Amino acid sequence: MGTRILLIGRLPSALLRPLCTKGTASHSSSSRYSAVILQRSFDLQLEQRHSVHYLFPPMPALNCPRMLCSKALTELEFDDLAENTLTSIGDYLDGFTEWLPVDADFDISYAMGVLTIKLGGGRGTYVINKQSPNKQLWLSSPVSGPKRYDYIHGQWVYGHDGVALHDLLNEEFRKLFETDRIDFNQNRDD
């Protein structure tokens, strides 16, 4: 049986599911090329039916958050950056008791890559931890919920909204403690 070749070029934008968040990729590049999800689907068909081959146009590097790093981090670089970030956030929070009225049950603990921040007074608990396999920092916030941060251009950034970890902490802690004096960026060490 002969081999059939199906060429896939420009696909209607209705068939494409955006892989990048708004503002991280040009609209024309996502509508001009087949999406990775569709490519995987066709590749699966190729594996199941060896007589059909699918050819795709070369896909440009989309500006997806995981691809924005200036370079791929090694495990050692990630561990150093994550450790420095978590330590500097913990150190900054430890100083809160000196200049900010906090409840008696306010507590900061850091162990084995997990920073736990118990705010007390019904404000909730934050957890920030290293995820070495993904080279991410994960945040659990009582205000905004869970988020995963990638190290992009010198800061930890949440790919879905482009907000840096330190900026989110500033916004939420300022609201929770009703002061503009909180600034996690002044103590950044990442």
From TrEMBL:
Pfam families: Frataxin_Cyay (PF01491). InterPro entries: Frataxin, Frataxin/CyaY, Frataxin/CyaY_sf, Frataxin_CS. The keyword Cytoplasm does not apply. GO terms for cellular component: mitochondrion. It is found in: Mitochondrion. Its EC number is 1.16.3.1. One of its GO terms (molecular function) is ferroxidase activity. It catalyses: 4 Fe(2+) + O2 + 4 H(+) = 4 Fe(3+) + 2 H2O. Keywords: Ion transport, Iron, Iron storage, Iron transport, Mitochondrion, Oxidoreductase, Transit peptide, Transport. The keyword Glycoprotein does not apply. One of its GO terms (biological process) is iron-sulfur cluster assembly. It is an enzyme of class 1 (oxidoreductase). CDD domains: Frataxin (cd00503). Belongs to the frataxin family. This is ferroxidase. The lineage of its organism: Eukaryota, Metazoa, Ecdysozoa, Nematoda, Chromadorea.
